[in-house]
Amino acid sequence: MEEVETPEELLAKQHRKEKKDLQAKIQSMKNAVPKNDKKRRKQLTEDITKLEADLSQRHEEEIRQLKSTTDTKVEEVINGVESFKVEDEEQEDVKQPRVTKAQKRRDKKAAQEKERESRIAEAEVQNLQGVRHQEGLKLAQKLAQQKLQIKEISSDGHCMYRAVEDQLAQRSQPGLTMSVKQLRSRTAEHMRSHADDFLPFLTNPNTGDMYTTDEFEKYCSDVEHTAAWGGQLELRALTQVLRLPIEVVQADSPAIKIGEEYDSEPITLVYMRHAYGLGEHYNTVERLKDPANAEES
């Protein structure tokens, strides 16, 4: 059964769209003012600051209103829970349908996804003007110079592989398209078969010693079968699996280029340190859209 989004999640989603729309508008405003027109550029900076401040102020007010509304309903919810308890007790003797193991797994996964979405929404509410917002602005400016923009990838532990999957799909080249599952499997297989290239860079966080053979196999198994987060080692393996260079754009550092020995157009990923307030995250990119049509798209 499809999960119903909470008011906090809906508000956070609305705020993300409004901020994305504002950034498109700001980019359009910047493009309309020549760089050598200092007077108009100064006025432009003031206008942009005001637009961002107005949006942040409105978002904060909407969050306060939502919190106030939620607080007034707490007593109603408690009373409702008490009444449900009575009904539940009356139905204890009714035989419930048997739940299969597969359904339990699906329910558990859905509950985990729901919890993660709630954490993302909470982080979104708390970080309207924080480092994540500033990081997003810097990345948007860097990518705009290449006529690119961020394309959001879900934050579920597979983000790096989903971003690579999207980049390959955008190329539409036969034999290059791979699913997340395939990318994880090929990455783990490559790391196992080239252990000497990867093992020296993996150490036990408790002892500081290099991974044992068993620990390395456990690491590769997690890469293949779980939602273990991917990093630079996995990207290095992927460049060799795909025989393509990978460029990772960052807000406060020069882009990292991996696999420069391959003479092809690189896969471009965006690395975010402060995404959703939940730690590091990868997004993909797409061609920069016309700001005038941004809302329609």
Automatic annotation (TrEMBL):
The gene is otud6b. Pfam families: OTU (PF02338). This is ubiquitinyl hydrolase 1. The keyword Coiled coil does not apply. It catalyses: Thiol-dependent hydrolysis of ester, thioester, amide, peptide and isopeptide bonds formed by the C-terminal Gly of ubiquitin (a 76-residue protein attached to proteins as an intracellular targeting signal). One of its GO terms (molecular function) is cysteine-type deubiquitinase activity. One of its GO terms (biological process) is protein deubiquitination. Residues 109-118 have a biased composition (Basic and acidic residues). Keywords: Hydrolase, Protease, Thiol protease, Ubl conjugation pathway. Residues 148-288 form the OTU domain. The keyword Protease applies. It comes from Stegastes partitus. Coiled coil: none annotated. Its EC number is 3.4.19.12.
